[in-house]
Amino acid sequence: MNEYDSDKMADVLHAWDGMMPTDKPEDADVILFNTCSIREKAEEKVFSDLGRVRPLKQANPDLLICVGGCVASQEGAAILQRAPYVDVIFGPQTLHRLPQLLQARRDTGRPQVDISFPEVEKFDHLPTPQTTSGTAFVSIMEGCSKYCTFCVVPYTRGEEVSRPVADVMRDVHELVAQGVKEVTLLGQNVNAYCGLGDDGETVDFAFLLLSLAALEGITRLRYTTSHPKEMTQRLIDVYSTTPKLVSHLHLPVQSGSDRILAAMKRGHTVLEYKSIIRRVRAARPGICITSDFIVGFPGETEQDFELTMKLIDEIGFDNSFSYLYSPRPGTPAAEMRDDTPHEVKALRLKRLQDRIMEQEDGVAQAMLGTTQRALVEGVSKKDAHELAARTDNNRVVNFSGAPSLIGSFVDLKITQVVRHTLRGELVAHSNER
Ligand code: SAM
Q1: From CA 393, how far away is CA 212, in angstroms rounded?
Q2: Would you say the pTM of this structure is higher than 0.90?
Q3: What's the gap in Å between 321 CA and the centre of ligand 1?
Q4: DSSP letter, residue 230
Q5: E strands, 91-172, where?
Q6: What separation in angstroms does the CA of 199 have from each of 165, 169, 202?
Q7: CB under 6 Å to ligand 1: residues?
Q8: Please, what are the averages of pLDDT over each run of 10 residues along the chain (433 residues)?
């Protein structure tokens, strides 16, 4: 989501003033930090990064320094107290107003702050999406109304707001015309999507997926991230009827203990989560499941943690985003008593990550020798002479092939697994780009 937002900021500045990204901060007219406040570490980084660019501003007073994203949303004008040389502060919902804010800063000589939540206005003011690869992100909803006790998102990004179906379809049509074959639908809880349909009635996420799958140019649909509470049977049924929806589901669970799930205010039990996964697997045998975990939530006992490990063994995950709980100011959990020493929490996290890594390896080993259809995304990160392609179940496979294959589908025989990374050999490719 943050990468998507950063791209949009670059698009807006390019459309306004022809600005182009540069790798050299000393060449920049504008330096823009897109910040994250989901955990403490990400937040602290902002001020040290700002300190690093301060000398550039001293050397070039025309340089404009901007802070956007969730730290900006949370701290607002308070950022100016610690970093008075910042020129513009804007939130995730006001990134489209960057040109006006920069202009106002130049005209008035005063720092500008706009961290309001003007609902979907943003999307009406963003330039047409542009891409040269076969894949693209499309934001379909924003914000979160779940108010989990650990999380800042509802306060920094606002409540859930969905874009109308016609707007999403227009973006996807434009991307398909540019050669995009795979679209990842983005949002904090995409499956809470509730957008206006063409007849003025609201429609759900299953409807949107089916409408997009009906588009000829689209070969694959992904979405991230979702919430177990919104995993309706209608949505699960899409897995049995719609092969274009990929065989990968990222469904955050956070903990395997009902006591902790209740304290987190997640709104579901472990049994309900397991029931969702059972039904998803019945609808799409072999689907890969990934999840988010928070280790060391206030009051998490050894017994609670063992229940999380039990759930991991029962489900079998193919990867996770797992972190230690980080108290966020203003959230209910930050006020909860937390007696567990950091060392104990760190050991728990290591155990959890080791276990999931074993499971990840099991999935990779099972893919060995199979032929996988994969979309070539670009040059491999590991070896500039190789290409990287993504399989239906969200695994990256590195292989030797001509750069002209970028953006097209290939069939790859998986020949090697090196520490979770797959290597493959080209079996066939589709000629159309
Ligand atoms: N749809 C998702 C869900 O079901 O919660 C929301 C995604 S949330 C913005 C991203 C992830 O960040 C969460 O799933 C959670 O694991 C992690 N996270 C959020 N707040 C956190 C905190 N205070 N400490 C550690 N991890 C946190």
Answers
A1: 19
A2: yes
A3: 9
A4: G
A5: 112-114, 135-139, 141-142, 161-162
A6: 10, 15, 9
A7: 38-39, 148, 150-151, 153, 188-189, 225-227, 252, 254, 292, 294, 323, 325-326, 328
A8: 91 94 94 92 86 94 95 93 95 94 96 87 76 88 96 93 94 93 96 96 98 95 97 98 98 98 98 98 97 98 98 97 95 96 98 97 96 95 92 96 94 91 87 46
